[in-house]
Amino acid sequence: MIDVRSVSHAYLDGTPKVLDDVEVTFPPGQVTALVGSNGAGKSTLLSAMGRLLTPKAGSVLLDGVDIAKAPPTTVAKRMAVLRQDNRISARLTVVDLIRFGRFPYSAGRLTIQDHSVVEQALDYVDMTAMRDCFLDELSGGQRQRAYIAMILAQDTDYVLLDEPLNNLDMRHAAAIMQLLRRTADDLERTVIVVLHDINVASSYCDRIVGMRDGRIVVDGTPAHVMRTDVLAEVFDMDIPVHDIDGHQLALHWAPDRHVSHLTDPRRPA
Ligand SMILES: Nc1ncnc2c1ncn2[C@@H]1O[C@H](COP(=O)(O)OP(=O)(O)OP(=O)(O)O)[C@@H](O)[C@H]1O
Ligand SMILES: [Mg+2]
């Protein structure tokens, strides 16, 4: 279980809090979507949970242990984090990147078991044929899949992914979400995934946590969250929700729907 306790953060002293007293728990074996508008604090929260950032106040407990006090390799073996912007400057091949995922286990000397996990991760993301390609020679979506494979190869109980579907085509996006679902259902892993597509969250996740202005404003099952009044609390938009074959889906694309606080380019200022 990940237990976020009264976490607050501001990037610079004297600036407004980007996380404001966040309290949330992630029980094992669930896929949770973290949603919210740009700047809501999703990446900051994920970074605090993944120990990529030390919050100004509060703590994050991993199965009861404060991650700030736990040895780094202990946390690395339990939790893998895919960042929103992945930039590795070294010229690496796909398979080498994924081998990095085994580093907390192998410390550089990969065993037969490590190699087989790497091969499986390549297969999971449909990148076996591109295993020896350099990352800077891939398309954006192919590169994203390589990074997801590196995260999966870490074989951790907790998997935190910040917008993993960025750049993915529909087939690969669906495949990755199915993979995350299986990871939770079959291996009892805990998956926390930042998503912008609320319909993906509704279709694949057990729970949706909505953030706004650094706070958690909504936390519930898709059935609870996929309602026009609840979505308005998160996104400040009037979003119609329809039941389609038992799925609650938002139909927020409508060219004639007025979106508040964005200027209408047809109107003079
Ligand atoms: N390194 C940083 N230094 C200063 N401010 C930052 C930094 N990173 C993020 N912020 C600010 O913190 C707030 C929350 O940012 P965060 O990246 O957590 O949002 P987000 O919910 O992930 O948004 P998005 O959907 O655009 O990725 C924003 O107002 C942003 O400008
Ligand atoms: Mg973000």
What average pLDDT do the residues reach? 92
Return the string of H and E elements: EEEHEEHEHHHHEHEHEEHHEE
The domain count comes to 1
Share of β-strand residues: 15-25%
Bound molecules: adenosine-5'-triphosphate, magnesium ion
- Counted by DSSP, the helix tally is 10
Brief write-up:
The protein has 269 residues and is an alpha/beta fold. The protein has 10 helices and 12 strands.
Provide a descriptive summary of the structure in words.
The chain has a single domain (2-250), classed as 3-Layer(aba) Sandwich (Rossmann fold), CATH 3.40.50. Helix 5 packs antiparallel against helix 6. The longest helix is centred in the middle third of the chain and has 18 residues, at 170-187. The protein has helices at residues 42-49, 72-78, 94-100, 103-106, 112-124, 140-153, 170-187, 198-204, 222-225, 228-235, and strands at 2-9, 19-26, 31-36, 57-62, 65-66, 79-82, 158-162, 190-194, 207-212, 215-220, 241-244, 247-250. The strands form three sheets. Strands 6-7-8-3-9-10 form a six-stranded mixed β-sheet, with helices on both faces. It has a four-stranded antiparallel β-sheet with strand order 2-1-4-5, with helices on one face. Strand 4 (57-62) and strand 5 form a beta hairpin. It is globular and about 55 Å long. It has 269 residues and is α/β, with parallel strands linked by helices. The protein binds adenosine-5'-triphosphate and magnesium ion. Adenosine-5'-triphosphate binds next to helix 1. Adenosine-5'-triphosphate (ATP) is lined by residues 11, 18, 36, 38-44, 84.
